[in-house]
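Re-run with default settings, no changes from the original entry. Doing this only to confirm the output is reproducible before filing.
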Amino acid sequence: MEPYNPLETSSIGESVVRKLLSREPRQLTEIETFKGAGIYAIYYSGGFGPYAPYRSDSETGTFDLPIYIGKAIPAGARTGGKGAAADPGYVLFNRLKEHLESIRQTTNLDENDFYYRYLVVDDVWIPLGESLMISTYIPIWNVQITGFGNHDPGAGRYKQKRSLWDTVHPGRPWAMKCEPALKSTDQILAALRESVPLTIEVED
């Protein structure tokens, strides 16, 4: 067995993930202002039928499968561990608030059914932590039903296709201006039903 090197990239990534998962989940609607950049996980505890295999249980405090993993990095963040860190401001808080607003605008999701964990991280390690979380938990809004994190493309760019997420969860005004997606809601959800939730344990 190779000796454990705490400074290896994989070891650092696992350390970030363990720290994030140790955080107590909080209801997204009750988010309070905080400063910093970092990574986050969003969990769903509602009754949307196709998401039943991925549902978290807020009553028992069981939050095993995130529905979405994301990151927020300030402009001018360091790369490769070099240079001075940019002041992150409220970039992570603002990103989570954007997600809450997206959920509020849908016609078939309840904002009260969403919970989150977040971790403020030195910006050089943020992409590593996000990548490991996504590869470990395969969140359906990152992999199968993509587009949750999209922004308004702006006037003159609405000829692009509507995302799979906006097709399944219509309501964002700017997304409704886009062209219909190539797949219908039924096709998207049928493909989701054929997938199997998969997790890979992060070693202690």
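Residues 91-104 form the longest helix (14 residues). Residues 9-143 form one domain.
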